[in-house]
Amino acid sequence: MGRWGAVACALAVMAGMAVSTTAGAQTTTVKAFMTLYGYEDNSPPGTAISHPCIHSRAGGVGTYANPITFATDTAELPYCQIIYVPYMKRYFIHEDECSQCDQNWNASHLYRFDMWAGGDASSRRQPERKALAKCESAWTRANSVTDPDNPTVEIDPPSNLPVTPAPIFSPPTGCWSGGPFIVASPGKQTSRTASPVSLHITAHDYATSPSPTYGASGLPAGLSINATTGVISGTPTTRERSTVVVDVSDPTGSASISFVWNVKRG
Prior knowledge:
This protein is mainly beta and 266 residues long. The chain has 2 helices and 17 strands. The longest helix has 12 residues, at 128-139.
């Protein structure tokens, strides 16, 4: 995709500048062509932004208190406006200008938002340059402002929506995978036949809904996993050594872990 971004401007932090989200404001939704830009494809390359609101340079973590910089036409949304992007599970704030957004809005009055992905000075060289571009493309949605599959974005969102804290791009080559889960491995397990066991697989789900579903393969004979709670329980019946794979999933994604389970004679 083509990339664009900031017009160099004052870089000092503008402390106390108002954020354009009014308490009690009515949340509205729009369909928008969502693209990303980073250090290397900013104009000029770097982290400068055209209208600092809460950041002196492009940045943010995606929470309501510290939203990530995004760029668009001021005719679409005013500077300092906060939005929420459900498929990214992050809040963004309008702090930058986007020339292609200007062109799209002037031509068709259709929304286009360009979200800051990150990067640093090494993004101008390989392998980081290629990794940043690949990450931006991975999280771009649909193909144009006229695509009917463009995602829905919330304007004036409430402050309590689910947030994914992971960076979108982590230099030199890391890119957020989108997986909603962090699943903790219980480590190697040792049990004895005829002795009941209960093991809770812990999964943190960034999404608040729907609840994840658990599944497992390779469990020792006599054991099963509760699909709702993630608890493996039962009484082993056979002396064996097996590799257990636990899968956690919901409609937004999945994750899995594996560990060894050794059952000795009771």
